[in-house]
């Protein structure tokens, strides 16, 4: 996949349709359609390169696998071990979004990569940001690396990993209090990093992403990234909580009208006749993107099943939409045919009134409004399936 983009970093890709169309400075409906379609394609191809580093034994590989929605023993997973398994920078593409690239960097201070030369050796400019992991106290080399990254004006984040191990160990004590244990870990990290100005440290368990501060970490990453890269980050996240599911939905919803523009290139001759009225490939690709982003595909469900110890059949049994078995031409046709012309006509009128110029297309405007309406309906149905799967997995919080 080509990850280059011509988008200006200041382009507000997620503006409301009418504001964005005005920003394009176009004069005809055809120009609107063409430019918006290009913008949607560029957004989907934006690359995100995430660097994961830290001392040997910090749990880099397990954390990378968790970010990619994989278990340590999955076929595509990053190799794990008690010794240093990464001697050169190794790129692991996200299994569902190849434009999201997670890099396993050599442990800081290993014989081949000393801290002083580290950033040069691993090609610093490749990465959008760095995550520095430690399973105990952050060492001097961790701090030195952070200082160098700061000088070069890129973002870094400290992640205290294996928090579940600490909790499990402390749980044996009669005086155990989970919140006190977490507070003690956080204070130890804070004191350890005071020379860097007391940066934020995120407490994470790679085996239980729904707990502790993984979601807070992802929120900080999202806020710090350029707008055009936020979509890639959010859509790549494993669905481990209702909060992440909601965030994914918000970004997908903002892409629906761009997809509708692309799929309305062929004017509708019937409503809601799918094949005659839109680019079925675009519609299916969009539905499939939602299906995978929400973790409803077989591979995601199997990984979730292993992680929460709930049978796959039990997770699948709660999926009630027509998409439960996957996205096929027959399923999409059947879904579209369920909605009456009256429902669609009402939505079309609203969509066309909010899109200057596009509404001027004689038949494409009707197609646009129809597809926009139906894509939203499909999003809602798959969201409901995902909510039920999270509940069945005990991740409803």
TrEMBL record:
Residue numbers spanned by region Disordered: 70-90
Residue span, IRG-type G domain: 46-224
Molecular function in Gene Ontology: GTP binding; hydrolase activity
One Pfam family linked to the record: IIGP
Ranges annotated as biased composition (Polar residues): 78-88
TM region(s), chain numbering: 256-287, 355-375
Gene3D superfamilies per the UniProt record, alphabetical: P-loop containing nucleotide triphosphate hydrolases (3.40.50.300)
Name this polypeptide is given: Interferon-inducible GTPase 5-like
Keywords assigned by UniProt, alphabetized: GTP-binding, Hydrolase, Membrane, Nucleotide-binding, Transmembrane, Transmembrane helix
Superkingdom, taxonomy of origin: Eukaryota
GO CC annotation: membrane
Xref: InterPro entries: G_IRG_dom (IPR030385), Immunity-related_GTPase-like (IPR007743), IRG (IPR051515), P-loop_NTPase (IPR027417)
Family label: Belongs to the TRAFAC class dynamin-like GTPase superfamily. IRG family.
Species name: Astyanax mexicanus
